[in-house]
Design a protein that fits this description.
D-Maltodextrin-Binding Protein, domain 2, nine-stranded mixed sheet, 269 residues, alpha/beta
C-alpha cells in the first residue's frame, strides 16, 4: 500500500507540468472507459495543447497494444499477468502499473426477476451450467439465459478467478464484448443473468447481492464484498511518459477522483 501512495504522490507532482502539441492514445478496459473518457474530456479543457484519444476493446487488448507500442496508456480492470511483464522485458520495455480506482463486479438480472441474492456457490454452478433453471435458486420455473464476457475482458478474468475458480464457463453462455452490452442484453431479457462493473449499474437492470452482501462503495472499502478489484492505467518507458504521467496525475487528483465517483466507481483514496 505504501508503494501505491508513493506512486500517487509522484504523479500528482507531474500534474503541475504543462504540455503543448502532444497527443495521447488510450485503449483497453471497457470498465475503465467511462472514467478515461470523462477525465480526458476534462483534462483537454484545461490543457488545450493536448489531444487525447480514448477507446475500449478489453483489458487484454489494451495491454497487448501497449506492448506493441501502439498506445501510450492501457486501461485495465485486472492485474498485469506475469507473462505480460515477461514479454515487456523481452521487448526491452518496463511497464508501470498505476491504480486509479476501486470497483465491484456485480451479478445483475432483469428487474422483473424476483431473485435478489445468490451465493458464490450458486453463481459458480450457474456459470458452469450445473444450475439451469431459476426455480433452483428460488425463482420462477424458467430456463436461465447466461451472459458472460469474452476472454479478453478484465471483468471476465476477475469473475473467472473469484467466482469460477477458473472452471470452464458453460458453452451455453452468450458472450458479450463490453459491460454496456451485458447490461443491454439483461435489460431486454427477463430470464437473463450477467455481471458488470459497479459503474455500469442503473435502473435498467437489478444488481444481486452475493451471500447477502450487495456490491457498493461501503462493502468494497470494508473488504466485505467478495468480488472486488482495483482498476489500473498502465504506461511503459517507451511511451510519452511525461505527458502520460501528467494525465494520470490528474486522474489521481481530487478533481480526477471526483470523476471516478461521478462515474459510479470508488475513489482510490
Amino acid at each position: 500500500m505504501k508503494r501505491i501512495f508513493v506512486c500517487v504522490l509522484a504523479l500528482l507532482l507531474f500534474n503541475t507540468i504543462s504540455f503543448a502539441g502532444e497527443k495521447l492514445v488510450i485503449k483497453g478496459s471497457t470498465t475503465v472507459l467511462p472514467i478515461a473518457q470523462k477525465a480526458a474530456e476534462t483534462y483537454m479543457n484545461t490543457h488545450p495543447g493536448v489531444s487525447i484519444s480514448v477507446s475500449g476493446g478489453g483489458s487484454g487488448t489494451g495491454i497487448k497494444t501497449i506492448l506493441d507500442g501502439i498506445v501510450d496508456i492501457a486501461d485495465s480492470s485486472r492485474e498485469v499477468k506475469p507473462k505480460e511483464f515477461e514479454l515487456a522485458k523481452e521487448k526491452g520495455m518496463i511497464l508501470t502499473v498505476h491504480p486509479i480506482a476501486l470497483d465491484a463486479v456485480v451479478p445483475v438480472v432483469n428487474p422483473k426477476n424476483s431473485v435478489g441474492n445468490l451465493t458464490l456457490k450458486q453463481l459458480h454452478d450457474i456459470y458452469t451450467g450445473k444450475i439451469k433453471n431459476w426455480k433452483e435458486v428460488g425463482g420462477k420455473n424458467i430456463r436461465m439465459v447466461v451472459i458472460s464476457r469474452d476472454s479478453s475482458s478484465g471483468t471476465f478474468e476477475v469473475w473467472n478467478k473469484k467466482v469460477m475458480h477458473k472452471d470452464r464457463v458453460t458453452p451455453r453462455a452468450l458472450l458479450q464484448a463490453s459491460n454496456g452490452a451485458v447490461r443491454e442484453v439483461v435489460a431486454k431479457n427477463k430470464n437473463a443473468i450477467g455481471y458488470i462493473g459497479l459503474g455500469y449499474a442503473n435502473k435498467q437492470i437489478k444488481p444481486v447481492s452475493i451471500d447477502g452482501v450487495m456490491g457498493s462503495r461501503d462493502s468494497v472499502r470494508k473488504g466485505k464484498y467478495p468480488v472486488s478489484r482495483i482498476l489500473y492505467m498502465i504506461t511503459s518507458d517507451s511511451s510519452k511518459q511525461a505527458v502520460s504521467y501528467n494525465f494520470i496525475g490528474f486522474v489521481l487528483s481530487s478533481a480526477g477522483q471526483q470523476i471516478v465517483q461521478q462515474e459510479g466507481f470508488i475513489k482510490l483514496r
